[in-house]
Specification:
The chain is an alpha+beta fold. Among the domains are: about 80 residues, PGBD-like superfamily/PGBD (Muramoyl-pentapeptide Carboxypeptidase, domain 1, Orthogonal Bundle), CATH 1.10.101; about 120 residues, L,D-transpeptidase catalytic domain-like (Beta Barrel), CATH 2.40.440. Keywords: Cell shape, Cell wall biogenesis/degradation, Peptidoglycan synthesis, Transferase.
């Protein structure tokens, strides 16, 4: 009887121990710890059993199938002047192009074919779009390469505005000649009938100043001193006369006379020659 009782007691004890071990193993699994066994099991690699995380892994963002926006192209530079424009700014443009040998004729103040060709050549030489139009980029590049033109660079071929007439020109019939503005006004009783650009003698053969009168007219005159033609000559002081000059028409203020008053507009001086009379007053002033 005792032996049987002891057996039951030992059996229950072993059963309880086995239950404890089983419970420990279960806790180990639930807690994610490493379980190591004795004997042969010790030589095996430890096994870690982990529960899946309660937080789902974030899904990767889907690729953006929208095409990337294209960059906005830069606006072309603003055009300052182009064919047909007129004015002082065009004279300055032409004078600067002339300084660097892209234009050979003197400034006219009109953006013509020659000016457009010169601008196009300047642009092409410097890798700029060859439009023939003067835009802001072209103008700034030209400014850096040239100097500020002087007054007579701008009006090399004439076209300058005339200054106010001298007080001595306001009565009667007068050839009113200004050395300051290099202009001649043909005036009758204070009214300007014709105004033309003129050229004077050099420092070695200066044009005389003062009040004179026309004493002789010669339509096809040739200088006996220089053997040069002086058409439409109107003499007012010794050998000095107002007359047409083909050299002035061709080279502008790059040259000078031998003391005469040169006119480059042949049609204008022909009209003036027909109206001026011997005895009409001539005033040469600053």
């Amino acid at each position: 009887m005792r032996t049987r009782g002891m057996g039951r007691t030992r059996g229950r004890g072993l059963g309880s121990g086995t239950a404890v071990l089983a419970c420990g193993a279960a806790l180990t699994v639930l807690c994610g710890c490493t379980v190591q066994a004795s004997g042969e099991e010790e030589r095996r690699s430890p096994v870690r059993i982990e529960l899946p995380s309660g937080t789902p892994s974030p899904k990767s963002a889907p690729p953006d199938d929208k095409p990337s926006a294209k960059p906005t192209p830069a606006a072309p530079p603003a055009v300052l002047w182009s064919r047909g424009d007129e004015g002082r700014d065009i004279r300055e443009l032409q004078a600067r192009l002339r300084q660097i040998a892209w234009l050979f004729d003197g400034p006219t103040g009109t953006y013509d074919d020659l000016t457009e060709q010169a601008v196009r050549g300047f642009q092409g030489k410097r890798g700029l779009p060859k439009t023939g139009k003067t835009d802001e980029v072209t103008w700034q590049r030209l400014l850096r390469m040239t100097r500020e033109p002087g007054k007579w660079d701008l009006y090399l071929m004439g076209g300058q505005p005339a200054d106010a007439p001298d007080a001595r020109c306001l009565t009667g019939r007068v050839l009113c000649i200004s050395k300051s503005s290099r202009t001649l006004r043909w005036m009758i009783d204070g009214r300007s009938v014709l105004t033309v650009p003129v050229r004077f003698g050099s420092q070695y053969t200066p044009t005389r100043e003062g009040v004179f009168s026309v004493y002789w007219k010669s339509r096809h005159h040739v200088s006996t001193l220089y053997d040069s033609p002086m058409p439409y000559a109107m003499f007012f002081s010794g050998g000095q006369a107002v007359h047409y000059s083909s050299d002035f028409a061709a080279t502008g203020y790059a040259g000078a006379s031998h003391g005469c008053v040169n006119v480059r507009d042949e049609r204008a001086i022909a009209e003036m020659f027909a109206q001026v009379r011997t005895g009409d007053k001539v005033v040469v002033h600053w």
